[in-house]
Amino acid sequence: MGKPGRTLLAKIWDQHVIARMSGDTDLLHVDRHLLHDLGGSRGLLDLKSRGLKVHNPELTFATPDHAISTARGRAGTSKIGQELLAALRVETAASGIQMFDIDQPGQGIVHVIGPELGLSLPGSLIVCGDSHTCTHGGLGALAFGIGSSELTHVLATQALIQRRPKTMRVKFEGKLPLGVTAKDMILALIGHIGAAGGTGYAVEYAGSAIRDMPIEGRLTICNLSIELGAKMGFVAPDEKTFEFLRDRPYAPRGEMWHRALTAWRQLPSDADAVFDKEIVIDVEKIMPQVTWGTSPEQVVGVDARIPDPQTIDDPVRRTSVETALEYMGLKGGAPIAGTPIDWVFIGSCTNSRLSDLRAAAEIARGRKVAPGVRAWVVPGSETVKREAVAEGLDKLFMDAGFEWREPGCSMCLAANGETVAPGQRSVSTSNRNFVGRQGPRARTHLASPASAAAAAIAGAITDVRTMGR
Amino acid sequence: MPKPFSKLTATAAAIMRSNIDTDVIIRIERLVGNSVRGTLGKWAFGSLRYLPDGSENPAFILNREPYRQAEILVTGPNFGCGSSREGAVWSLQELGIRAIIGSGFGDIFFANCFQNGILPVVVDKEIVDSLAAEIEATQGAGRVSVDLEAQTIVSPSGKQHTFDIDPRRREGLLQGLDEVSLTLQRDNQIHAFQAADRTERPWIHFARKSA
Predict the structure, then answer these.
(1) Which of A121, A390, A420, B52 has the highest CB neighbour count under 10 A?
(2) What confidence score (pLDDT) does residue A23 get?
């Protein structure tokens, strides 16, 4: 018997160990540190107050996304949002950190721009003070969110102390049915194993449906890893990954590209690698998904009924369903389809890439947003926006009655004054349906871009498959 | 720099709902700005603590005596899931919370607790449930003890339970160690790693935008 096979996690992890600390805890090298406007300047100021300097400014990149308005001209950015933007400019400049500023090429949601600029690379270790950093795992990187203290630690040392997580492999097998997307796959998984099903694990997504999936879909899948409790999720890099990265602005070129390719081809988990947990999902059984509650695990197929608390025996679960339904203003046992809505938000680090906008546009084309519904399309980055405009998507959406916005996080987290009003119901392509996430007492239903567009047209939660082309 | 934590006997409040996320612990708009610390205790659990008109919700446990004085939270599964915002920990700290006992926590929230001198204790769900039941039975009068040195918790009725904790984390909390200073003592190792890695993986270190 030779050595047992190694997982992708083990290969990337081991390559980044600067020092073994204790047990399964290591000091790891950070290859890319991404800063945004909400926490970036705070970290840099914290560092300054300790009399320290940024260890590797050339491995650190910044962009404003969370606290800026997405209105034209960034009108309506709060005073404090403007202060954070100004502070990010001043502090990154003082430390020699590159910043992709508003109205400049490269600006956008930090998890959209990393992959699109070629900053996020296979086999790299990426951190950011944002839990959806797991998105970058779609390119075969170990990427995870950190808190403010860890952020300061990375600025000061370009390293981070981490405990090696357990490994879970989720195989999505089969051919995706028409109208079912990456978003539906990952929501179905969260519904299946729960919002804590991945806690303590690093999740590797595999199987034929992942191999067949373009990179943007893989980024969506990895983005929701944190919603199943996993700090990081990733997909082994393959030829699709390399094609995606080739000629990106910050990707290696020439001789260095070929050397990188050779290294990246060694990364996938060995055939005999053993995982602590394995799950297989048959994607052919997945319906378009929509959440009905206040945790992403509270999700059903769009043709299903909302759970009825009266049929639940376990008192704890029953109370939890009742509490969620009360907040959401829904009746247990009723069909989820047909629920009238007030808002549609198409955007966020989950679903604001060009392919997402195309999928929504395909449904919106030649139709009209229902009376009484406000529908926003917020491209994920300046690049996405430019490319979408070149295809005429902005015009298509506006003709259909959608509002076309500037890139940013917008209504996903409501840190920028862009909120759903109390009691109003939104179908959102974002990642969290938490209590108050889109604004105090706002009611959020998570769904795919196509499903969200269908809801905007119908004025109600709708099975997108009935509106296909 | 985190405050050291060794031992605590205090009032405990049980919040047993599962999946209490960090958005529920502290809303994002309270965290927008570089000088929010010190202002957050008032807003912890805002949507649970206050009614829409801004008045206190008498039904929420932390609005009742003696739970207003709670320094320990006993929590349902997956407490602190969701966003990485460290403000969730800061807001609990400003509320006076020093230890949290649950069957599982969001990974990032868990790490953030240690950075601030708050002890998150993971024990089996049965133990969490029995602690919560005992606290309720004494209407909060029964105090809970958490001893990090001995790795034990003692329930209001005197039942003792042991818990596991990463030895490095335990040490850090007992001494109130500052991770940044500790890692900077290894700066020569970091530089040695980077020097070798520049040859091994130059594409990481020489990311330059090509024209």
Answers:
(1) A121
(2) 87
Superfamily classification of domain A8-277: Aconitase, domain 3 (3.30.499.10)
Segment B59-74 mean pLDDT? 97
Contact A312/B at CB under 8 A: no
For the cut 50, the answer to whether the pLDDT of residue B106 exceeds it is: yes
Q: What is the mean pLDDT of residues A32-38?
A: 97
In whole angstroms, give the CA distance from residue B162 to residue A370: 59
ipTM for the assembly: 0.96
Place of tokens 């073994």: A20
Decide: B170 and B117 in contact? Cβ < 8 Å: no
The single residue listed with the structure tokens 């600390």 is A21
Residues paired with residue A277 on neighbouring β-strands, in sequence order: A168
User: For residues B142 and A397, what is the distance between their CA atoms, to the nearest angstrom?
Assistant: 61
- Chain B residues in contact with A259 (beta carbon < 8 A): 202-203
B210, pLDDT greater than 70: no
Multiple choice CATH, A292-467, 2.40.50.140, 3.40.50.20, 1.10.1200.30, 3.30.499.10: 3.30.499.10
* Mutation site for A-interface testing, chosen from B3, B93, B180, B182 by largest number of A Cβ within 10 Å: B180
**With contacts defined as CB-CB under 8 Å, which chain B residues touch A80?**
32-33
Place of tokens 């206050």: B50
8 Å CB contact of B204 and A161: no
Report domain extents, chain A: 8-277, 292-467
Q: Which two tokens stand for residue A288?
A: 């378009």
Domain covering B7-175: architecture: Alpha-Beta Barrel (3.20)
